[in-house]
């Protein structure tokens, strides 16, 4: 447990003394301060067609393990360390509705138990049917599927990537775009909205790509996108023209066959860690094996945007590794830029967990 964090157990967050037994900023005032600090940002976001954003980023704003997000008509509260007291939940909902001047449908997902799976048992926390319905949120003028609870554990749109999707929308005109680890295809959708010539979304999870297809259907004015359901390793190696190698003694499961192909803009946003029959995604120990084939699938004069969301990896160390890997693989970086999440993801030490590098090759 980190210093200043509360011990686990129920009833630990309530509005009068956020953490029992700890001297701490009360949740109510921490929340009001967070809402105050977002005044200008929210006006800006609403003007640009965005109603999905973080209202309270607990780890940096006074209640570690608590996040409060608006997803269009829905208010999504998530706790990761301990269960939020029922009255505290209702109080924060009321405060937010009053400050924002709108009604929001409340969904509370307690992810503090059992390996961060959502606790759906306690009826006190069951959301209304309307709140759990299929809803629509907006970002950069695009429509996105919002679903408070679904088969997976994370919300269908990662909000800290908003600035990166905005960048993609601004920089995709006429480009062939490859969206790797596409999840619900927000990056692909942004590229299509930005006038990309081709958009290809790649992910191994059919359910995530299905939401990507829903997102496409929610924006019928956009050109159609391609969806490839495949493990990253065989797919990217084939696109890069590299052999798909088998580990000694292990027969590979079947995988879709792809022709070598290059893209003008490649977006690489992998999970922190994932193991499959084809390889291991490990952002701490081995970013290179993800990066190398992605570099080789990026066209001459193309751009590779890559992310690392692991808090314990520093931007400086990771950037050094990335630039060295590009050099070593004959794709030296001509120019690079860092893209930070927006101010709804404040970071006291200026080291946000999600790091994004734009590499001009
Ligand atoms: C952190 S999310 C990526 C977020 C996404 N880039 C976005 O824009 O929201 C991780 C995604 O990687 C996919 N994934 C994990 N391991 C994979 C693998 N080996 N091959 C293909 N997809 C994988 C998961 O299905 C999930 O959709």
TrEMBL record:
Keyword Chloroplast: no
Pfam families: Methyltrans_SAM (PF10672)
An annotated GO BP: rRNA processing
CDD domains: AdoMet_MTases
Residue ranges constituting the S-adenosylmethionine-dependent methyltransferase domain according to the UniProt record: 54-358
Signal peptide span: none
Superkingdom, natural source: Bacteria
InterPro entries in the record: SAM-dep_methyl-trfase (IPR019614), SAM-dependent_MTases_sf (IPR029063)
One GO MF term: methyltransferase activity
Record keywords, A-Z: Methyltransferase, rRNA processing, S-adenosyl-L-methionine, Transferase
PANTHER family, A to Z: RIBOSOMAL RNA LARGE SUBUNIT METHYLTRANSFERASE YWBD-RELATED, SAM-DEPENDENT METHYLTRANSFERASE
Name the record gives this protein: Class I SAM-dependent rRNA methyltransferase
Source organism of this protein record: Pseudomonas laurentiana
């Amino acid at each position: 447990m980190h210093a200043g964090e509360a011990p686990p157990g129920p009833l630990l967050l309530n509005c009068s003394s956020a953490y029992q037994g700890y001297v701490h900023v009360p949740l109510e005032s921490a929340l009001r301060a967070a809402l105050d600090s977002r005044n200008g940002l929210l006006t800006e976001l609403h003007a640009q067609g965005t109603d999905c954003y973080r209202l309270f980023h607990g780890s940096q704003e006074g209640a570690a393990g608590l996040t409060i997000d608006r997803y269009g008509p829905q208010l999504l509260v998530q706790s990761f360390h301990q269960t939020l007291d029922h009255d505290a939940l209702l109080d924060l909902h009321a405060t937010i509705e009053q400050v924002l001047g709108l009604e929001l449908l409340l969904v509370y997902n307690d992810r503090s138990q059992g390996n961060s799976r959502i606790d759906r048992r306690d009826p006190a926390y069951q959301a209304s049917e309307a709140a759990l319905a299929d809803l629509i949120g907006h970002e950069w003028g695009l429509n996105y599927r919002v679903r408070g609870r679904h088969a997976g554990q994370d919300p269908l749109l990662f909000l800290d990537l908003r600035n990166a999707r905005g960048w993609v929308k601004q920089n995709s005109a006429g480009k062939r775009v490859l969206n790797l680890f596409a999840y619900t295809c927000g990056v692909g959708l942004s590229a299509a909205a930005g006038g990309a010539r081709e958009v290809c979304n790649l992910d191994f999870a059919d359910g995530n790509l299905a939401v990507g297809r829903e997102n496409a259907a929610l924006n019928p004015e956009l050109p159609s996108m391609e969806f490839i359901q495949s493990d990253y390793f065989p797919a990217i190696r084939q696109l890069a023209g590299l052999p798909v190698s088998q580990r000694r003694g292990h027969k590979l499961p079947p995988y879709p066959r792809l022709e070598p192909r290059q893209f003008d803009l490649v977006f690489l946003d992998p999970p922190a860690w994932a193991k499959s029959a084809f390889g291991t995604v490990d952002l701490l120990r081995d970013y290179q094996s993800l990066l190398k084939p992605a570099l080789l699938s990026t066209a001459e004069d193309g751009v590779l945007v890559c992310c690392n969301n692991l808090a314990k990896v520093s931007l400086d160390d990771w950037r050094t590794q990335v630039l060295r890997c590009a050099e070593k693989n004959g794709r030296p970086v001509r120019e690079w830029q860092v893209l930070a999440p927006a101010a709804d993801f404040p970071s006291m030490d200026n080291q946000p967990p999600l790091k994004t590098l734009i590499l001009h090759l």
